[in-house]
Design goal:
The chain is mainly beta. The protein has no helices and eleven strands.
Amino acid sequence: QVQLVESGGGLVQPGGSLRLSCAASGSIFSINYMGWYRQAPGKERELVARVFSDGRTNYADSVKGRCTISRDNAKNTVSLQLNSLKPEDTAVYYCNVEVIVRPTFRQGRYWGQGTQVTVSS
């Protein structure tokens, strides 16, 4: 089993910054990618950013230039730095990982419990 613990989130004023972190633990053999999705009320969950084991990154067009994802492979953690926040960034942010688990060496995707980010004055 794989556990994800998220931290960060909260209320931020427009133009402000926020850092989200996620730590993965459990029966992990390797991690293919770590990333963040978000879901706003009445909308579908969407990818924000993810980083692969080889360092490649994906960013949603809506956050490019305002967002940096980073990963510590030794600690199985991923962080998301969000800058120049806008009210439309308000959502529940979910950590998401794709891993190979022990002892089956099967691939699986796991989700964190979600952390609320609210951008408002």
